[in-house]
UniProtKB/TrEMBL annotation:
One of its GO terms (molecular function) is exonuclease activity. This is Exonuclease domain-containing protein. Its main location: nucleus. GO terms for cellular component: nucleus. Belongs to the REXO1/REXO3 family. Gene3D superfamilies: Ribonuclease H-like superfamily/Ribonuclease H (3.30.420.10). It comes from Paspalum notatum var. saurae. Keywords: Exonuclease, Hydrolase, Nuclease, Nucleus.
């Protein structure tokens, strides 16, 4: 593996170094910036972009890691080489490429693919599945669609409790209840459709599921799912998701173009199903059905293969229910802030959803603010202090600072539920805001104010334009 790393091209080494940055990995000289500060007297860490560093510097940094890490880095190099070989083969022999493999490639070319499908599979419990010879992948392969349901455990993690897999004939290949073997805080039955009674007597573990998936994905078979990376890995490594690293995937969120969403955004399974297949996966308020969602993902791929759908799809207007139009979403709220204190930032007396247990993510939670009509929603949002930005789905939001009675200042986001709705009347920065509430929270001081590194004078100046709600 060390030889494979040493022989890698610079662009591959750049990707591996970026992987270490994303996952906070450190060698004997610390992380990437630590290494530069110690070993480059001229520039130090001031030029930290891996692309601007020589191949020798990149390799020297990666060689500061243990043999186990270098072994994993070798696997990353192999994965990159396989991806390049697939691209080259498709260019040289386009007539040999199956339609299914073209969708695998279309998924891999999506702007969000490398970020979301770069898994920490060097960690314990992960399974890296082989794809076989590149030339053999070009012919038609079996396709299998998957969907999972997760529950919230008492230690704050999430765990898989049901896994369903169907083939391209919609025949069920796997429908299994999974015992997380840890205490469950919230079954989220209204979302997952799984109750405490359902899991009583369940003996299958995550390892059992991984073995089953390894068997049915042999010989380069294609795995399909909607935002599939969330089932394979989730947002944080310590969650008990499937922990499967596999590159032969079709993500139905990536293979369609959207007329009025950012290129990095994707539609929900339900709204995409309505736009492409003409029906809803579920009615409003109905819990998920793991098997039905897997079937829907497969039907979307089959529709794409049959009809192409090369033109952008306009689905945003139908992606929000009538009741949700009258709401604002408040997210990344620190758990120590009672939701009733949110009344301070809204005029009138809107309803605040205090059923937040299923929406707690570590140290943060989210809730909904409901209004009587659209005018109230627009007025409430416009009256909030804070700069307008767009979230990753293209919806307007503002970062709000709330000063509590004890003097603490709390930061969170207020987001619209609908796209558009006056968004064309002003210029909205394209800068991506803070992560949503389902990401790993950053450490905070005891008084609840998030720790921040020192920033440049220019960045401080832009912050001073944001006022604090009294």
């Amino acid at each position: 593996m060390a030889k494979r790393l040493a022989a890698a091209d610079k662009e591959v080494l750049v990707e591996v170094v970026r992987f270490t940055q994303k996952n906070g990995l450190k060698g004997s000289d610390g992380g990437w910036k630590d290494f530069l500060a110690q070993n480059d007297r001229k520039f130090g860490a001031s030029v930290s972009d891996p692309r601007k560093r020589s191949r020798d510097v990149l390799l020297a940094f990666l060689q500061t890691f243990s043999k186990d890490y270098q072994k994993y880095f070798g696997k990353l190099v192999k994965r990159h080489n396989e991806r390049s070989a697939v691209q080259q083969h498709m260019t040289e022999f386009p007539d040999e490429v199956s339609p299914e493999q073209k969708l695998v490639q279309l998924t891999a070319e999506h702007p969000e693919y490398r970020k979301n499908y770069c898994f920490p599979s060097y960690q314990e419990g992960w399974k890296v599945l082989r794809i076989g010879e590149v030339s053999s992948l070009m012919s038609s392969r079996a396709m299998l669609a998957i969907d999972c349901e997760m529950v919230l455990c008492k230690d704050g993690t999430e765990a898989v409790v049901r896994v369903c897999v169907v083939d391209n004939n919609l025949e069920v290949k796997l429908d299994i209840l999974v015992n997380p073997y840890k205490a469950i805080a919230d079954y989220r039955t209204h979302i997952t459709g799984v109750s405490k009674d359902d899991l009583e007597g369940a003996t299958s573990s995550l390892v059992d599921v991984q073995k089953s998936l390894k068997r049915i994905l042999s010989k380069g078979n294609i795995l399909i799912g909607h935002s599939l990376h969330r089932d394979l890995c989730g947002k944080v490594w310590y969650n008990l998701f499937l922990k499967i690293d596999y590159s032969q995937v079709i993500d139905t969120a990536y293979i369609f173009k959207y007329a009025n969403l950012p290129t990095t955004a994707s539609a929900s399974l339900n709204s995409l199903c309505k736009a492409v297949l003409g029906y809803s996966v579920r009615e409003e308020g109905e819990p998920h059905n793991c098997l039905k969602d897997a079937e829907t993902a497969m039907n979307l791929v089959l529709a794409k293969l049959k009809h192409g759908f090369s033109d952008p799809i306009d689905i945003a207007a139908s992606s929000v229910t009538e009741s949700d139009v009258l709401k604002l979403l408040v997210h990344r709220i620190p758990v120590y802030l009672p939701c009733q204190e949110l009344h301070k930032i809204f005029s009138g007396n809107p309803d605040i959803d205090d059923k937040i247990d299923s929406r707690i993510r570590g140290e943060f939670y989210s809730t909904y603010i409901s209004f009587n009509d659209l005018d109230e929603v627009e007025r409430a949002f416009e009256e909030l202090d804070g700069q307008k930005t767009k979230d990753s789905g293209g919806r307007l939001q503002k970062q709000v600072l709330l000063k509590r009675d004890n003097g603490d200042v709390v930061s969170f986001f207020v987001r619209k539920m609908v796209h558009g709705s006056g968004s064309n009347q002003f210029d909205v920065p394209k800068k991506r805001p803070e992560p949503s509430d389902d990401l790993v929270p950053k450490k905070e001081h005891a008084n609840g104010i998030q720790q921040k590194k020192k920033r440049s004078t220019k960045k401080h100046a832009s912050k001073e334009n944001m006022s604090v709600a009294p």
